[in-house]
Write a structure and sequence with these properties.
Blueprint: H1 13-22, H2 30-47, H3 54-96, H4 103-130, H5 132-147
Helix pairs in contact: 1-3, 2-3, 3-5
Length: 149
């Protein structure tokens, strides 16, 4: 009997890119596990009337921020790939003469969108300052989540 070697599965650029985006889950990080343990301990201490729910709230805020930071990093990578592809397609279509771009209209749309985003960011800032301790823990968690590799 002879054994036939199994060929490695070939995959394209998109499959490799999306595979790396889905790999390395946030719950594998030590800081995520530590914050989860802190949250569980805080809930236990709060339920047994040993302390206030502040420890649980801070740990949960860190976990939420960590997941948001991790998801944001993955989203930015995917958005960069899509944006580069879109810009390449637009450049090719403009070079071949298939499309004509009205830059004044594009600039007006971009300005309107940025003004809208600034208004939403200001509202978000006001909400975050209302919940400063939890927001601080969530901010640190988002930083750790964004930097997770």
């Amino acid at each position: 009997m002879s054994t036939v070697p199994v060929q490695a599965q070939k995959s394209g650029f998109l499959a490799k890119t999306l595979g790396t985006l889905a790999s390395d889950p946030p719950w594998a990080a030590k800081s995520f596990l530590a914050a989860g343990a802190t949250t569980v301990a805080g809930i236990g201490a709060w339920l047994s009337d040993m302390m206030s729910p502040a420890l649980a709230r801070g740990g949960a805020s860190f976990l939420g921020g960590f997941i948001l930071g991790w998801a944001f990093r993955k989203t930015v990578k995917l958005a960069l790939i899509i944006a580069a592809s879109l810009f390449a397609l637009i450049a090719i279509l403009k070079t071949t003469g298939w499309i004509h771009l009205d830059w004044t209209l594009i600039e007006a749309d971009a300005t309107r969108t940025l003004d809208w985003a600034r208004g939403k960011a200001q509202g978000f800032k006001e909400v975050v300052t209302g919940y400063l301790p939890s927001a601080g823990a969530a901010g640190v968690g988002a930083l750790f989540g964004f930097r997770k590799k």
